[in-house]
From TrEMBL:
Pfam families assigned to the protein according to its UniProt record, in alphabetical order: Inositol_P
Record's keyword annotation contains Hydrolase: yes
Enzyme class: hydrolase
Binding positions (Mg(2+) 2): 90, 93
Record GO biological process: L-histidine biosynthetic process
Keywords, alphabetical: Amino-acid biosynthesis, Histidine biosynthesis, Hydrolase, Magnesium, Metal-binding
Protein name: Histidinol-phosphatase
PANTHER family in UniProt: 3'(2'),5'-BISPHOSPHATE NUCLEOTIDASE, PHOSPHATASE
Any GO MF annotation of the entry: metal ion binding
Cofactor: Mg(2+)
Documented EC number(s): 3.1.3.15
Superkingdom of source: Bacteria
Claim: Lipid metabolism is one of the keywords in the record: no
Length: 265
């Protein structure tokens, strides 16, 4: 029988990540579906007071509990990235969904040790859903273990991307080549799609132009549920990845997707 007892330090990290998620949910829901000023950042993506308030609170709490850990956040940048332990946070993943009242935005929280994500949370504040992945452990949805669908063929796959608008010319060619072969293609969801992949409702997700705070938390969640998530060349995702992400329910499906990408690119 497999021993699933976590060392005390891992238990503490997981409990702390859940504390951050609960804090983020409390703050973000105060602003959800209220009148908000939406600002435009340098990269033309939207940001609100909610994004900034959530991240500020998380960063303050991390500094209190783990002052020797680095932090990489979407709104306030990076500090201590040369440290052994780093928290990577996205206060509101899916700000466009947030400002248009869609209840599919999430909060992403990852812990990295020596650059490798060993803990990831996908928290969906409007619904209270939460996926937790931890290296060497099964992914959980709430208190229950979750598993990917086992889909092995793109022809049978339920395929998601947040929006076709995220792709450049080459990316759009790859997206069309992949999604037109799938049984079903759908748009939207942001990080929610990866949680649904971990729970077996979505089979493949394909995206580009993501940042580390968009994808680092996804890695332990997808992998711990039996899925595969890498860049478009099949390399592990890291802080230095180029933001092109492909996730699949199984290794077979993932390999098929990579072969199509290589052919089209």
């Amino acid at each position: 029988m497999q021993d699933t007892t976590l060392p005390s330090n891992d238990e503490a990290l997981c409990a702390f990540a859940q504390e951050l998620a609960d804090m983020a949910r409390s703050i973000s829901m105060q602003y959800f579906r209220t009148e908000l000023d939406v600002l435009e950042k340098d990269d033309l993506s939207p940001v609100t007071i909610a994004d900034r308030a959530v991240e500020a609170a998380m960063r303050e709490r991390i500094a209190q509990v783990y002052p020797d850990h680095g932090i990489y956040g979407e709104e306030q940048g990076q500090q201590g990235l040369d440290r052994a332990h780093i928290w990577v946070v996205d206060p509101i993943d899916g700000t466009k969904s947030f400002v248009t009242g869609m209840p599919t935005f999430g909060t992403l929280i990852a812990h990295l040790e020596e650059g490798t994500p060993d803990l990831g949370l996908i928290s969906i504040p409007p619904t209270g859903e939460c996926w937790t992945g931890q290296a060497g452990m099964p992914t959980t949805f709430g208190d229950s273990r979750c598993l990917t669908s086992g889909c092995t063929s793109l022809a049978d796959a339920r395929f998601y991307t947040t929006s076709p608008d995220i792709f450049d010319e080459n990316g759009l060619r790859c997206f069309e080549a992949l999604s037109r072969r799938a049984r079903m293609r759908r748009f939207g969801g942001d990080c929610y799609a990866y949680g649904l992949l971990a729970s077996g409702y979505v089979d493949a997700v394909f995206e580009m132009d993501l940042q580390p705070y968009d994808y680092m938390a996804l890695v332990p969640v997808v992998e711990g549920a039996g899925g595969v998530i890498t860049d478009w060349q099949g390399r592990p995702l890291s802080l230095d990845s180029d933001g092109r992400v492909v996730a699949a329910a199984t290794g077979e499906l993932h390999r098929e997707m990579l072969e199509i990408i290589a052919t089209v690119s």
